[in-house]
Amino acid sequence: MTWEVVVVGLGGMGSAAAWHLARRGHRVLGVDQYEPGHTRGASHGRTRIIRKAYFEDPAYVPLLERAYELWDELSRTRGEVLLWRTGGLLLGRPEAPALAGALRSARAFGIPHELLSEGEVRRRFPALSPPPGTVGLLEPDAGVLRPERCVQAHLRAAEAAGACLRFGHPVLRWQEVGSRVVVETAGARVEAGALILTAGPWAPRLLAEAELPLRVTRQVVGWFARPSGIRESLGPWFLADMEGTILYGIPDPEEDTLKAALHVPGEPCTPETVRREVSAEDTDSILRPLRRLVPGLGALRETGTCLYTMTPDGHFVIGRPPGCGRVVYAAGLSGHGFKFAPVIGEILADLATRGTSPHPIAFLSPERFAASRGAARA
């Protein structure tokens, strides 16, 4: 078969891109080196936060509004719940970057929210013991996504729309040749009119010629028995900005657990060299601040690792490798990208088949790194 588009990497972004392409009627082939649901990359972990009052930059809010629409559409299409609107609580001093940034986005886009004093936080969320001077921003429409379930839903929807998906096919190399793109995997050589690369922590290798300043880091997460103040109702997730260190906790919508981790870049690694074992030192780094904020925290039940692919400014990169008119990629999602999966998939489908997208993505262009690339060459 002659393919119109090949998608390399079928995690959060690639599975969404395959769905958008297939439902538009394109002949799409998706390939991945592992089976769906694997834990070697960044599209796992059982729960992920979704929010609109985005402290990272208000420019993300229009993309988030579209992401919410698409998650709801996918839920209806598959007949299963993918997004729980649990609410979300940001904590910190008023001047903390997460609080100030979230409030800026909420006011700029009219996102419903409540500002809570320290006393109101303690009264309404008795499981939490915030430090003196803490305030809260409560976003009722924030929620929780199931990443493994979301990826499977995108894959099943893509296949139902006609996509061909192949797993266990590592990509060795790709090349743009005239009006076609050639992709070589461990098991086949395929050609297509366009290529989408959504390789997560494998992006530094597959996009080496793009000279993107990407850094892969190891992250550790833990799952704890919920404290009594959270066990009685689902409650919101919380994210606390504590003097530049961000700690988050996510009550599971379907289990009696609280997932918690530090949202900070971890030790540099690659997908091949990452330490998968979790040490006592790793868990202590989470437990120390977590127990101060959640004094009644239950026992540690499970640990795990995942990978961040970081950019220097913490913003995503969506673009084309230099000199390539038929290849598009999304990379460097910097630990906060999963919630955007359906809209990034839509953007990538637009770029691969139409050359442009109506979504406002100029701020995510790789051109912002042009000066640093030139300096590195010099």
Q: Keyphrases for this structure?
A:
378 residues, alpha+beta, FAD/NAD(P)-binding domain, D-Amino Acid Oxidase, Chain A, domain 2, 8-stranded mixed β-sheet, 19 strands
Give the oligomeric state of the chains in this entry, treating copies of one chain as homo and distinct chains as hetero: single chain
Structural category is alpha+beta
CATH superfamily of the largest domain: FAD/NAD(P)-binding domain
- Please give the CATH class of the largest domain: Alpha Beta
Could you walk me through the main structural features you see in this protein, from its secondary elements to its overall organization?
This protein has 378 residues and is of the alpha+beta class. The chain folds into two domains: 173 residues, FAD/NAD(P)-binding domain (3-Layer(bba) Sandwich), CATH 3.50.50.60; 149 residues, D-Amino Acid Oxidase, subunit A, domain 2 (D-Amino Acid Oxidase, Chain A, domain 2, 2-Layer Sandwich). It is 29% helix and 28% strand. It contains ten helices and 19 strands. The strands form three sheets. Strands 1, 2, 9, 10, 11, 12, 18 and 19 form an eight-stranded mixed β-sheet that branches. α1 packs parallel to α5, α2 packs across α5 and α2 packs across α9.
Brief sketch in words of this structure:
This protein has helices spanning 12-23, 61-78, 97-109, 118-124, 147-160, 203-206, 228-231, 280-293, 341-354, 370-377; strands at residues 3-8, 28-32, 48-50, 83-84, 88-92, 114-116, 135-139, 143-145, 164-167, 171-177, 180-185, 189-197, 215-225, 237-242, 245-251, 257-262, 300-310, 317-319, 327-331.
